[in-house]
Amino acid sequence: MIPVAEFKQFTEQQPAFKVLKPWWDVLAEYLTVAMLMIGVFGCTLQVTQDKIICLPSHELQENFSEAPCQQLLPRGVSEQMGGLREVSGLKNNLDLQQYSFINQLCYETALHWYAKYFPYLVVIHTLIFMVCTSFWFKFPGTSSKIEHFISILGKCFDSPWTTRALSEVSGENQKGPTTGRATATVEASAGPGKANEGEKEKVLVEPEKVVTEPPAVTLLDKKEGEQAKALFEKVKKFRVHVEEGDILYTMYIRQTVLKVCKFFAILVYNLVYVEKISFLVACRVETSEVTGYASFCCNHTKAHLFSKLAFCYISFVCVYGITCLYTLYWLFHRPLKEYSFRSVREETGMGDIPDVKNDFAFMLHLIDQYDSLYSKRFAVFLSEVSESRLKQLNLNHEWTPEKLRQKLQRNARGRLELALCMLPGLPDTVFELSEVEALRLEAICDITFPPGLSQLVHLQELSLLHSPARLPFSLQIFLRDRLKVIRVKCEELREVPLWVFGLRGLEELHLEGLFPPELARAATLESLRELKQLKVLSLRSNASKVPASVTDVAGHLQRLSLHNDGARLLALNSLKKLAALRELELVACGLERIPHAIFSLGALQELDLKDNHLRSIEEILSFQHCRKLVTLKLWHNQIAYVPEHVRKLRGLEQLYLSHNKLETLPTQLGLCSGLRLLDVSHNGLRSLPPELGLLQSLQHLAVSYNALEALPEELFFCRKLRTLLLGYNHLSQLSPQVGALRALGRLELKGNRLEALPEELGNCVGLKRVGLLVEDTLYEGLPAEVREKMEEE
To answer: Among the entry's GO cellular component annotations, what is one (predicted)?
Structure first.
């Protein structure tokens, strides 16, 4: 016996799989149940009751036929058969064993096979129908996809986010586009237009109607938001996996075709053989030696009932076959391997819901036969717009205004800055911090600034670092005169948003990105004509020339920085038009000579040529035309010597020559009487010219990381020195004249060959322990009173 519990697994699968069973499959199931009952009922009768009853015939054997058997029919049947007379009372002289023997023998030899096996055939055919109907639910290649699909479908249908998303778009369709936050649209979903929607849509939206208080109560909690986020990922992966093939579609067609073929075969042979189920059967067997008779008249006791069951069975098979034919028609009269969400897009307003294909499309077509509401709710998780809304909602949960305020800091310019990095989006709560003056967004993809940006009334600085951003026109008007500084960093400069070049109140523009190889030579940049107040322009790229659009701001541009990352900058003629330029940086531009265009900049005050390939600076004489030049940075190059006519630069105040290949300095350098800072560190200097003592304005001297073995005594005539960096040289002693540098506040002596420090260091009243960079052993060698003086606050 099989316990009932063994069938539990089938009852558990039924509720899940029913969504993939259209009405014809459901009808076919009921028909197979009815046919199975017919077969089981016939088999039960066949097993439990006598199958046939035979009596010997007294007619001559050679004249034996079915006519004598018909004389034994009941009266009503006899009249119908032609009014034959009734024969009774004959004695056969047979015992019970002989009758039983004859019954069995005649059942096997005389009764037609269709009449014998009819109930078993019904059971077998019905089981085949049942297998054909449910085979794709059991086959490993299809059942795994079906189970996964149904699991995801149920979660999508029951997800609170589905109701939330459909409620929002319902409200938007009724009241039009809203400029408020996403949470406000739920109020619109309870509008009066809801009464005109379908019943199923009412079921989705009715739970939101009770929300008339603050919109916050309709927000998903964090757990529900994370579950919805995981569902989006599952749907994406499932779609990619299922759309690759059409095994479900093919399997369904094959099992339907098999059922149709089976239907025709059953119908044909049943119609042919159903008349073989006869109530009386003539039986002739050679048993005269055993029973004394060779001819018998037999009664098939189940014939009347089997004939009625056969007609019922054929009727059910016909109905079943019609459903199979309709299934074939449904399969082939429309493209079931493509599914369009056009109606859902029109109804919900989510225009980005993609159409699907192959097995994914086929399952959705089957779902529509069950209830199209499933497809509508499932489509929410195919929409990127819906996914972005969910991400936005989760972001708002995670980044509360209180948490964001904890990240506020003052930047280098003293502005109150909020920096956000590597977030999946921009939280709406950012725009509740009206005190923010600078906003820095890094590695945040696909930013679309919402209308809430207008709440940041103090915003003056915006940084978009690998964070492409879209700005509606209304917000462009809002930022046009307010924003003063903007930084944009991207892979290619053509990704810079166009609205950046329309901010007419902008004072500083910092761009970083590469020109595509085909555009690097032209170095085309968007027009800067609208930037009427631009004073600072910084461009880090691989341009071959100065962009022509730079001349659009020639009248008011004060600082230009070009960082080329080693790419050679060939054409600089555009620089001549920058008459108002005060600061110029040409960093890593591959320059081998100082560009002549620079000497035309009469207003230039600071020039930085860092990290180029300068070997000779003979052109330094031409800097006398730049009468306002006070800072010259020629560091990180390959300069081997400084020409003597450096003396012409009497107005120069800062000269940076570090990280070069200098071995000597010209004596004429001492004639640059205005020099306040001289940096020649990281070179190969072995000595310093005594003429440096003429630099009476010198306050900062850096000669670290050279090969100096001694210092000229004249150096200590520079009484205004505040910083003297002598570290990592070959100095063996420090002159006591160092005590004359009373303004000295920082002295570096580390990495030399000093054996002791002069006690005259105590005369440097501005020098404290924190400003003296020297080995501890040398410091401890100073007199105690000198050390005490240095350690005083």
So the answer is: monoatomic ion channel complex
- Strand locations in 515-577, DSSP E? 536-540, 559-563
Query: What is the model's pTM?
Result: 0.66
Instruction: Please say whether the beta carbons of 517 and 493 come within 8 A.
Output: no
Comparing CA positions, the residue from 439, 447, 450, 485 lying closest to residue 467 is 447
Beta bridge partners of 545: 571
* Residues paired with residue 725 on neighbouring β-strands, in sequence order: 702, 748
Q: Annotate 163-228 with DSSP letters as a single string.
A: HHHHHHHHHHHHH----S-GGGHHHHTTSGGGGGS-HHHHHHHHHHHT--S-GGGGSPPHHHHHHH
- Look up residue 278 and give its two tokens: 């006869």
Q: Are strands 469-470 and 508-514 parallel, antiparallel or unpaired?
A: unpaired
Tokens of 635: 């560091």
Distance CA 691, CA 710 (A): 15
**C-alpha to C-alpha distance for 438 and 414, rounded to whole angstroms:** 10
pLDDT tens-digit series, residues 711-768: 999 999 999 999 999 999 999 999 999 999 999 999 999 999 999 999 999 899 889 9
Contact between 337 and 357 under an 8 Å Cβ cutoff? The reply is yes
The candidate with the shortest Cα–Cα distance to 438, out of 390, 469, 395, 482, is 482
Residue 16 near residue 150, CB atoms below 8 Å: yes
3-state secondary structure of 682: coil
- Residue range 125-151: mean pLDDT, rounded: 84
What is the model's pLDDT at position 181? 37
Q: Which tokens is 138 given?
A: 């059991």
- 70 — pLDDT class (breaks 50, 70, 90): low
Find the angle CA(666)-CA(670)-CA(675) to the nearest 5 degrees.
115
Non-local (6+) Cβ contacts of 432 within 8 A are: 401, 452, 455
> What CA–CA distance (Å, rounded) separates 546 from 526?
13
Tracing tokens 């860092």 back to the chain, one arrives at 610
Q: If you ran DSSP here, which 8-state letter would residue 545 be given?
A: B
CA dihedral 43, 48, 50, 52 (to 10 degrees): 10
Whether the Cβ atoms of residue 434 and residue 457 lie closer than 8 Å to each other: yes
Tally the C-alpha atoms within 13 A of residue 392's C-alpha that lie toward its C-beta: 19
Q: Is the CA virtual torsion 599, 603, 605, 606 positive or negative?
A: negative
What are 370-382's pLDDT values in tens digits? 888 888 888 887 8
Q: Where is pLDDT greater, at 768 or 80?
A: 768
CA dihedral 772, 776, 781, 785 (to 10 degrees): 50
- Angle, helix 140-158 to helix 372-379, in steps of 10 degrees: 80
Instruction: For the chain, report the end-to-end CA distance as a whole number of angstroms.
Output: 101
Q: Which residues contact 579 (CB under 8 A, 6 or more apart)?
A: 554, 555, 601, 602, 603
CB 302 within 8 A of CB 309: no
Bridge partners (DSSP) of residue 469 are: 447
H or E, element range at 128: helix 113-138
Report the C-alpha gap between 171 and 157 in whole angstroms.
20
260-310 pLDDT, tens digit per residue, is 999 999 889 888 888 888 878 888 887 776 677 788 888 777 888 888 888
User: Would you say 689 and 713 are in contact if contact means Cβ atoms under 8 Å apart?
Assistant: no
pLDDT higher than threshold 70 for residue 57 = yes
* Euclidean distance between CA atoms 77 and 84, whole angstroms: 10
* Number of helices (H), then strands (E), in the chain: 22, 24
Tell me the three state secondary structure of residue 81.
Answer: coil
Residue 429, SS3 per DSSP: helix
Confidence of residue 89 (pLDDT cuts 50, 70, 90): low
pLDDT per residue over 473-525, tens digit each? Answer: 989 999 998 999 999 999 988 889 999 999 999 999 999 998 887 776 666 78
Q: How far apart are CA 698 and CA 72, in angstroms?
A: 144
Record the tokens describing residue 544, joined without a space. Answer: 């071959």
